[in-house]
């Protein structure tokens, strides 16, 4: 299974890239929620958010998912309890990813109604999910 470690390495690389986007995007929204609509900062933040989501976060998520599913099947991880907890945490991570994409569109259309505090909390939820996922994968408390 020489290729297994390569798949694992690629999975980890893309997960790191995805999580970088998942942590940075809400941070950009924290700043964006405080700027005046139509200002130069509004335009700059919209560009940064769009590029981060389109060119880094979305592709990294897709590659993470592809490599993750491949590893899950090879290892038969779906038979173990820890994997079910990880899958549930991932479900919420995907939901937040979709929510972040929706918020980007709202900012682009000038329709954001959320405060900087909301985006700070969303950022912390992502952090908690990362912690749960890492513990499940490394410690495997439910075999």
Series of H and E elements: HHHH
Query: How many domain modules?
Result: 1
Radius of gyration: 17 Å
Number of helices: 4
End-to-end Cα distance, whole Å, is: 22 Å
What fraction of residues sit in β-strands?
A: under 5%
The total of beta strands comes to 0
List unreliable stretches of 5+ residues.
Answer: none
Instruction: Assign the structural class, choosing from mainly alpha, mainly beta, alpha/beta, alpha+beta, or little secondary structure.
Output: mainly alpha
Q: What level of helicity do the residues show?
A: over 70%
Name its key features:
mainly alpha, elongated
How does this structure look, described?
- By secondary structure, the protein is mostly helical.
- Helix 1 runs antiparallel to helix 2 (about 40-75) and helix 2 runs antiparallel to helix 3 (about 80-110).
- The protein has one domain (about 1-140).
- The protein is about 85% helix and about 0% strand.
- The model has no long low-confidence stretch (mean pLDDT about 95).
Quick rundown:
With 143 residues, this protein is an all-alpha fold. Helix content is 83%, strand content 0%. The chain has 4 helices and no strands.
How are the SSEs placed, and which strands pair?
Layout: H1 2-32, H2 40-75, H3 81-108, H4 116-139
Helix pairs in contact: 1-2, 1-3, 1-4, 2-3, 3-4
């Amino acid at each position: 299974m020489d290729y297994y470690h390569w798949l694992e390495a690629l999975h980890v690389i893309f997960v790191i890239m995805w999580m970088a986007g998942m942590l940075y995007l809400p941070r950009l929204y924290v700043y964006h929620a405080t700027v005046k609509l139509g200002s130069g900062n509004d335009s700059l933040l919209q560009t940064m958010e769009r590029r981060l989501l389109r060119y880094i976060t979305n592709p990294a998520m897709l590659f993470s998912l592809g490599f993750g599913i491949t590893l899950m099947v090879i290892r038969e991880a779906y038979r173990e309890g820890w994997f079910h907890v990880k899958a549930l945490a991932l479900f919420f991570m995907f939901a937040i990813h979709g929510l972040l994409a929706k918020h980007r569109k709202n900012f682009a259309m000038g329709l954001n109604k959320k405060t900087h505090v909301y985006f700070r909390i969303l950022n912390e939820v992502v952090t908690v999910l990362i912690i749960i996922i890492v513990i499940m994968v490394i410690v495997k408390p439910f075999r």
